[in-house]
Every structure is written in structure tokens, then in C-alpha cells.
Amino acid sequence: AQRGKVPEAIEHYAEALRIKPEYANAHDNLGVALFQQGKAAEAVGHYEQALRVKPEYAEAHNNLGSALSQLGRLAEAIEHHEHALRIKPDFAEAHFNLGTVLFQQGKVAEAAEHLGQGLRLKPEDSVAHNNLGIALVQLGKAPEAIGHYEQALRLKPDYAEACNSLAWVLATCGDGAVRDGARAVELVEEANRLAR
Predict the structure, then answer these.
(1) Which pLDDT value is given to residue 2?
(2) Do the Cβ atoms of 158 and 130 come closer than 8 Å?
(3) CA angle, residues 131, 134, 140, in degrees to nearest 5
(4) Would you tell me how many other CB atoms lie within 10 Å of the CB of residue 51?
(5) How far apart are the first and last CA of the chain?
(6) What is the pTM of this model?
(7) How many CA atoms lie within 13 A of 53 on its CB side?
(8) How far is CA 133 from CA 61, 74, 109, 139, in A?
(9) Which of 2, 38, 75, 194 is the most buried (most CB within 10 A)?
């Protein structure tokens, strides 16, 4: 559902469920719409209902994992993202989401692995490139991280967070061959301009 149409979408999905209460796709879609409105706890119930009807519904497992993650229930989120990947191993979004939750748990190497797998499937995801860059910096792989930050900016030139991420590594990297203070300053100025 598009942002401006979310309330209308919620009404339509709710009506579909009044007509057919066991419609898994409508439960999943209603969960997505509620999640977009910041109602993660309410979304969880609809994702769970979708999975009661259709237990091997990869998208619903992935969506449930995202909602659980937002609620701070990281171990459960991981279980659902992993379940989605057992059903559909080439599900890029599930790899990205699992990588993000693993990162939140401090499992940086595992997070980088899943973010990388997701990017092999969906290389045009600027957020995943930025997130993988952050993980790679923590793993001591600044040059590789820089490549991902730069790719994020090629894909989305107005991506302020990627500008800041790249600036930070260029300003603070212990490797003199990588460090570039002048470019870091330019990037911070660009990020500030974008944030206005």
C-alpha cells in the first residue's frame, strides 16, 4: 500500500477478511499496512493468522520477523527470517532483514554474510549496501566498506546516511592509504545539504 493510501488499504483488507476470514494474503497485506502505520504489535497478529492458514508463506514469515524486530523480540525475529529463507532461499529481503537483526545482536560477521547474499540477489538495494558497509567497517574491512558506500551513493545520490557513513570511514580509518579528510568534509557538507 502506498503511504497516502494506507488507511484505505486497511479498510479494503479488513473487508476482504470479513468476507473470507481465512484469506492468508489479506492477513499478510493488512499486517504490512498496519506496520507502515507504526502498528507493529497489531501487524504481528495478522502475520501470525496468515501463517496459521498458510504455514509455509515465506513473505509472511519475513514480515513477521520485521515486526518482531521492531518490537525488540530479536530471537523470534531471527527464527522467522530464517524460516522464510528455508522456504525461499533466494529471498533477498529476508537476507537483508536477517542481516539487520543479526547486526543488532552483535553478530556482525553473520550479518555481513546475509547482507552480502541479499545483494548478490538484489544488487540495486542502496540501504543494504550502506548496511553492509557499516558491518564491514566493524570487521576491519574499510576498503571493502568504502566500495559499498560508494555503490549506495551511485544508486541513490541523495542518500544522506551513506554520505555520512562514507565520510566517517574516510575521516577515521587507521589506514593512511584509505583516509581522505578533504573528501570526508565534502561528504559531510553534502549530507547536511541533503538533510535540509
Answers:
(1) 47
(2) no
(3) 140
(4) 20
(5) 27
(6) 0.90
(7) 16
(8) 26, 22, 12, 10
(9) 194
Which grid coordinates are listed for 150? 560508494
Cell of 124: 540495486
Question: What's the pLDDT at 12?
Answer: 86
Q: Which residue has the cell 507504526?
A: 38
Closest residue by Cα to residue 132 from 49, 117, 6: 117
C-alpha gyration radius of the chain: 19
Which residues touch 70 (CB under 8 Å, ≥6 apart)?
35, 40
**Apex 113 CA angle, 70 and 82, nearest 5:** 50
The C-alpha angle 61, 67, 70, rounded to 5 degrees, equals 140
Mean pLDDT per 10-residue section of the chain, whose length is 196 residues = 70 86 90 94 96 97 98 98 98 98 97 98 98 97 97 97 96 90 93 87
- Angle at CA 190, nearest 5°, toward 120 and 108? 35
156: burial class by Cβ within 10 Å (0-12, 13-18, 19+)? middle
